[in-house]
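hey so i finally got around to running the thing on that chain from the lab meeting. sorry it took forever, my laptop kept dying and i had to restart like 3 times. anyway pasting the input first so we r on the same page abt which one it is
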Amino acid sequence: MLDDARRRGLLTLGEFARRVDDLGVRGRKGIRLARALLVDRDAPPASVFESRLARLLDDPGLARPVRGFSLVVGRERYQLDFAYPDRRICIEADSEAFHLDLASFQRDRQRQNALVLAGWTVLRFTWRDLHDRPERLVSQVRHALAALPA
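ok and heres what got predicted. didnt touch it at all, straight out
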């Protein structure tokens, strides 16, 4: 039903993920199934994805990034999921729920180009990266930090 509703334009995955996040209290019927549907579609609720990524980045071998870092580039203000401002490294948690519609896709590319042109390195990770290859994700962040000293 979820996929059919998405195909018919009745619901976006982002809307569904936000609703699951809003209603997701322990013991509520159907929430476990709804979260499983989101995981299958590489789209956990944003708070779950970002919270787990934050825990992973709290690795003893890594400096702690700033979560929700706000940055102005030109006349645009950007909210970065995670950042190492002193090294100009941005880490983005990209889920299907919030990054696959055409407007988001376009905005993400414009934003990334603006950040790169302002001297930032942008690392983008998906739920699958976090879930299936967490050691690789940490290794890539560690490599970026080593390549761009403070």
